[in-house]
Amino acid sequence: MKDSIDSLTADILASECVSARHFADRAEALWRDGQIEIRGLRTELEKAKTRSKMKDRKISELERQIANLKKIVFGAKADRNPNKDQLQKGDGPSDQSAPGHTPNSATPNSGNDLHGHRQTPRRLAPRNRNGRGKREFPKHLERFEIYMGTPDKKCPCGCGGSIRGYDINETLEMVPARYYVAVRKYPKYRCRAADKVVGTPFIPRIFPQTTMSNGFLANVIFMRFGAQLPWYRQEGLLKASGIDLNRSTLMTWSNRIAIQALLPLYELLMRELLHNSARLFMDETTIPMLAPGKGQTITSHLIAIHRDDRSFGGNLPPIVAYVPSKTRAMYKIHQLLSGCNAIVQTDAYAGYGQLGREGTDVEGIVNPKCWAHTRRYFTDEYKRNKTEDARIVIELIAELYAEELKIRGKPPFVRKAHRQKYSAPVLARLKAFLDECSGRHLTKGGMAKAINYAQKLWPDLVLFVDDGRIDLDTNPVERMFKPSILLRKNALFMGSDEGAEAWGILSSIVETCKLNGVNVELYLNWVLDQIATKLPRSEYDKLLPWNAPQELLVGR
Fold first, then answer.
1. Where does the Transposase IS66 C-terminal domain start and stop, copy by copy (predicted)?
2. Do residues 302 and 328 touch, judged by C-beta distance below 8 A?
3. Spatial separation of the C-alpha atoms in residues 228 and 238, rounded to whole Å
4. Is residue 455 classed exposed, middle or buried when 0-12, 13-18 and 19+ CB atoms within 10 A define those classes?
5. How would DSSP label each residue in 117-145?
6. How confident is the model at residue 69 (pLDDT cuts 50, 70, 90)?
7. Could you tell me which residues are beta bridge partners of residue 197?
8. Which domain holds residue 393?
9. What would the DSSP string read from start to end of 145-182?
10. Are 426 and 395 in contact (CB under 8 A)?
11. Is 370 in contact with 474 (CB distance < 8 Å)?
12. Are residues 307 and 452 in the same domain?
């Protein structure tokens, strides 16, 4: 455009007789061209501003995702109130203190309940809440008195003074694990009556052809699935004691015990879960599995089905069963729950989307959704952007959890009545607030996504009001993944389909023992002894963890 103006100026200076009209037309044309160019530049500027805003939103979203991933990897897993100084009302923790899910919420005593099922014993805490007081050690531990004075029990200065009392100091001690070889001598007798040599029957072992006892094999399994110690570390511990056992040998024994000996117990656990439960929790996590012949891993899944009725005063024994699977698709979930008639609490994963739908094989299921997952969207938004509306929603959800604390362990009819009186009004306020603020946030922003999530799931989120058996969240089953996640971190991957099956079987039995207050290692030793004696399959229900002898309980 500047070149055109300069050209016009030069023509004016050079001309003597050109009409003024000619210059006016040229000036008007130049002005029009200038306006068109300005409008084009403005359009480009607006487009650039729009692109910049979109990039800013994308950067903000990516930063939020990075913060969430850092929290998952490095941070605490609980979704407590993000601004606890401002939010003074009770909130529902997602760790082991979650309302309605404490191990001893059903009964005040640590023994058997009214129906004979044992409850997990309460842990003894320090005298002071800060942990600095005198610690009370469990009463079942042996006490050995050690005299620390002079041999003649007289004053050490030689004056002859006698003992007038003792200062008592208790310390927790341990005897390191000690391996030994049991040399059993089975006599062979000369029977005069039968005129032959009669031998003594060997004690039964789960695998008679091995040189390892049932107790040793029980310890190997406990260390792997109860203490999350991978095979190579167990191999190292054995080597430190001068015992050369390859990790592949330990793995082979473990897999054989799971698949050849303990599979019927696992099937009984699954049958009990799916056909004799009023309420279940269900969730899944990923565990890498080694792809055969490729030298790399593929993503496999571990599905957990969990029963724990203690939050509503139920007396059925708690159970957790893990199902390894190469997929978590809807057909797999329907396959597992086919014919089940129960409440199944889950998150909002799409694979659970058809649970309870008429005409399917899972139509007998009621599928409440999880308030902890809903709250997480708002806590993430508040932590990221300090959005005031998110803070208000978190406060209202905290009120729901505060009401749950008051009815933890109560019967379903009590919980239902309390919720209808106190929780329903809170839900009404929360729903009205979500509807009110849904239009004042960016469509693709974190707050809008949180609101849309809650509104979409609202009918399933409020089912708990009219059924006292339903809990607010799925935190109980999420806690059941902690051992497997720790083992996944230590072991890195599952080695094969057989290893995955063994992982599911052994983890299910070990964690169910813990839920019922049973000493895992003693229980495994006892079960292997019972199976080795050729106990009929029809009597395997006697071997389930909650039917174990009293002497196998923790603290006995």
1. 508-546
2. no
3. 16
4. middle
5. -B-PPPPP--SSTTS-S-----TTS----
6. confident
7. 190
8. 371-472
9. ----S-TTSB-TTTT-PBP-----------PPP-----
10. no
11. yes
12. no
**Last-in-domain residue among 424, 450, 472:** 472
The pair of structure tokens assigned to 129 is 């809440």
**Both 362 and 505 in a single domain?**
yes
pLDDT at 56: 84
Asked whether 508 and 321 are in contact (CB, 8 A), the reply is: yes
pLDDT-derived band at 5, boundaries 50, 70, 90: low
Q: Are residues 468 and 480 in the same domain?
A: no
SS3 assignment, position 234 = helix
The 3-state secondary structure of 329-358, one letter per residue: CHHHHHHHHCCCCCEEECCCCHHHCCCCCC
Higher-confidence position of 478 and 127: 478
Three-state SS annotation for 59-122:
HHHHHHHHHHHHHHHHCCCCCCCCCCCCCCCCCCCCCCCCCCCCCCCCCCCCCECCCCCECCCC
Residues 329-380: tens digit of each pLDDT: 999 999 999 999 999 999 999 999 999 999 999 999 999 999 999 999 999 9
Q: Residue 549 phi/psi, 5° resolution?
A: -60, 155
Task: Give residue 468's pLDDT.
Answer: 96
Within its chain, how far is the Cα of 86 from the centroid? Answer: 29
